[in-house]
Amino acid sequence: MRLLDALVEQRIAAAAARGEFDDLPGAGAPLSLDDDALVPEEVRVANRILKNAGFVPPAVEQLRALRDLQAELNAVSDSAARCRLQARMLALDMALESLRGGPLMLPREYCRRIAERLSERAGNENASGGESFSVDTSGAGTW
């Protein structure tokens, strides 16, 4: 195989020296390559067929939805609306994590901090006349 590679390289170099690659259509323009280098070979054809048919994997749809929610969250200043958007983002993030096959178990400390933040926000909204809710931390650590 090395002999064939060397022969190909030699012929390419000779053609370049003769100027055969000058003035090619699209010269200097970036190539449009499909980004499937990280996709296993056995599923590339199936992915390409689905992509050409307009289908995308559920994880990609959820990532797009998360990005859209983040943009919406950045534009919203109302605390109640922000809280609802953050809850939707958390639900989407958890669904995405389950698609990835990630753990459904969260560290207890992380759950406790989330519960504290939600309680603080609920307290702030109650003071301003917003909705109230309670956070049950008895099952902290699992979802």
UniProtKB/TrEMBL annotation:
Query: Which residues are in the DnaJ homologue subfamily C member 28 conserved domain?
Result: 7-73
Instruction: Please give the InterPro entries that the UniProt record associates with this protein.
Output: DnaJ_C_subfamily_28, DnaJ_homolog_subfam-C_membr-28
Q: Where is this region: Disordered?
A: 121-143
Q: Where is the composition biased (Polar residues)?
A: 125-143
Q: What is this protein called?
A: DUF1992 domain-containing protein
Record the organism: Paraburkholderia rhynchosiae
